[in-house]
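MOLECULE: protein
FOLLOWS: sequence and fold
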Amino acid sequence: MGIPVKLPAFEGPLDLLLHLIESNKIDIYDIPIVTITDQYMEYIRAMEKKDLNIMSEFLVMAATLLEIKAKLLLPPEVDEEGQEIDPRADLVERLLE
């Protein structure tokens, strides 16, 4: 039997994401998606209470992080002005709110 680990409860997926960003002292405008996604998934796996309603919200955020990660691996998209589109921009905007 492993050592029990007590994790703090988070209001929602963005709250957990903000906690990970702050605890890793990461620039919110330059989120390293791989690092944050790995830590995020560790938290989901360690959740004591396996409430599907709560977990589904966290899993949607995990899927969003993986989608951003995949977009970062592809050639960059450009807007109509020729500027590269950062796939993290929408997430950063939501976190800043």
User: Anything to note?
Assistant: The chain has four helices and no strands.
